[in-house]
Amino acid sequence: MILEVIATCAEDAVVAEANGADRLELVTAVTEGGLTPGIGLVRQVVKSVNVPVHVMVRPHSRSFLYSEADIQTMEEEARAIEDAGAAGIVFGALTADRRIDEAALARILAASGGMNVTFHRAFDELASLPEGLHTLLRYPRVNRVLTSGGPLPAPQAASEIRQLVELARGSSLVILAGYGLTLETVDRFIAETKVCEVHFGSDIRFGRKGLSPIDPDRLSALSSRLKAYY
What we know:
alpha/beta, 8 helices, eight-stranded parallel barrel, 8 strands, globular
């Protein structure tokens, strides 16, 4: 069981690693769903931890439909993130008819070098999640999909996530479940969905608030619980 934790600063990253995070998703503007952090922060975090750092590549929070200028920006960001030593990027792009923007995806994959690529929760806005997953399975460079199984919190879409896990079985694509997971409900959720990776943000922060620092005791308790699945 892999535990991915959202980090928004270098302190977050260090505390997350020290208390059991297996991987970090580094973002800024967490209240907007996460945007690309500054390259200085990326370099600092990569130097500060030993766990893999996956960096959000998202130029704005208006939508997941991107212009040519947006795509060029993301290409430049992906190259800079790889140069900074990050292990991966987190990216997603859609078309106006709520399908995966394969043209944008191909360009970002080409710009991402040897990094891991996660397709983020833009996935949850697709017209058909199974169809979207089949599209992503045609791109072996995409390692995982971050999803809550649709617009609702993940615990309310356990059956949808279980279906995605089954569809991805035998491939190199991993279903990373996130949004709405809690320390108290994660055991039941894992049993229902059979996911092998989970993504946590606000629930492991003081007051369970997205803008608060990480609560080391709560994160450590979560990590200890997940070790039972190793």
